[in-house]
Amino acid sequence: MARTIDQPLATLRYATEQRRESYSALVWRKFRRSKIAIAGGIISMGLVILAIFSDFFSPYDPVAVNMQAAYTRPSGVYFVDAYGQFHWRPFTYMRVEELDPATFTVKVTEDTTQPYEIKFFVQGWEYKLFGLFPSRLHLYGVEQGGTIYLLGTDKFGRDLFGRICLAGRISLLLATAATLIIVSIGATVGVVSGYYGGWVDNLIQRFIEFVQSFPTLPLWMALAAVIPITWDQTVIFIVMSCIFALLGWTQLARELRGKVLALRETDYVMAAREMGAGDGRIIFRHLLPNTFSHVIVVMTLMIPSIILAESFLSFLGIGIQEPLVSWGTLMREAQSLQTLGSNPWLMWPTAGILLAVLGFNFLGDGLRDAVDPYAVV
To answer: Whose CA is closest to 115, among 75, 151, 161?
Structure first.
């Protein structure tokens, strides 16, 4: 009997202690308890860092053509040489192509007589950091005379690892831009619909139902297919962001409408109205900020879905086009079974998509639980 009485008392004491802390402190404390959420945050942050500093992580210019290195296999990284001697600094060997006189096939071997040490923070090809500051510093490189391609090269001899990092910049930026457009439209429309109610709410909800009646994927494909290739890269990027945001805002608008229908009758909203606050102030200073926790969760879950959609369209050849490069355009090079069978390393761009989807989904799930810190688990 005493045990059944102590349980609700402990729950009440736990909730009381929680309310003494700020909301952000409670969210962070609950978020850091989730190992999956922390892992998702680390993965997502790692991809963002690789995308932002892609030039720094690329030992070779990812857009420069080098036909002599076309379809080069990934370089091996070793610590023990062919004579069994251990090296503290990692090294690699040069690849040597030999023609087999019996089968007339090219055999690729490594010249183990000359190791080339891998060095870090070396000077290489010139680039502009953030597009402003000239720099030649790169994370890694090899001694003069050697080459290193961690993930191999494509048909034009371009370093695939550098291309994946560069493609992540476009894929993540496009997904983020489309998500921000979705959040801006969906949050505003949902809050306005829930706050005013009546005929305004009825009109907005009927329009949302009309927009939702369009099939998402065929509409995306049709709109992306009519974009002229001759357009400027920046214009194509903006148009693609708008295409992905065209139908995505409706679900968020409906979710926030339901929240605002409950929030508009709360004491602080009624007090603000009685004190003469206008509708705009109530919407943007009281109601909208109280939906930010839900909006943040939606953003983290929306980004991976847009990455998948962009990769699918680019893989079909109707999304991002050269010279822009995304994970989807890199996957397009692996759509031939003959090419993929001979050069399986061309599938490495799928790792970027997989990590992005898993990372942001794990992060979103953790945030979804953390934004309700008063729930006793």
So the answer is: 75
